[in-house]
Amino acid sequence: MRTLIVKLEGTTPLSFSRYHNEPWKTNATGSKAETHEEYDKRTWRSKLHVLDDGSVYIPPMALKGAMEGAAAYNPTKKKGSATWTRNLTASVVIQDPIVLDAVKVKDVESETLPMTSDGKPSRFSKGSRVPRTFPLIRSGWKTSATLIVLDDTLPQTVVEQAIGDAGVFVGIGRWRAENRGLYGRFRVVSKKWS
Hints:
Layout: E1 2-10, H1 36-43, E2 55-58, H2 60-70, E3 77-79, E4 82-83, H3 85-91, E5 92-93, E6 98-104, E7 109-116, E8 129-136, E9 142-149, H4 156-170, E10 186-193
Antiparallel strand pairs: 1-9, 1-10, 2-6, 3-4, 5-9, 7-8
Helix pairs in contact: 2-4
């Protein structure tokens, strides 16, 4: 078993759209006292992933999923035509929240965009456009993550390439690169194996 600590820096903005179940404002009769737009503008910070101290974090599975998606870009063969993708998927573990450096929930900006009302991509949507508000963390965000590699046969270069490609080709969060978006891209600033 080995450990890899990577420092990451966002090359594009980062945004989240975490599902939340914030209660609606209601009037005395119990019916909704705010519109969808008002609700969205009031609760957009709930779309972030936040620790008890107010720090914003990336869920560990978001980075692991990005690495797994990026493994498809690695041409390194294990044996014959087999690649290292299955080994990487099964043996890389990220346990802890990936806390963004110096980003607190109270300091995060928002952006309001016209989105499809049914939540589908515009090319598939039959709905109208409605304003939606999301959190926005400007490019330049920084964080570090600890990856545990359980498979000692998995080459370090394969793991390093997977996390590098994840930052370029896949991304993290809402409107990330793998979903035809422009957000969530990052670069590896440093890596340390132990």
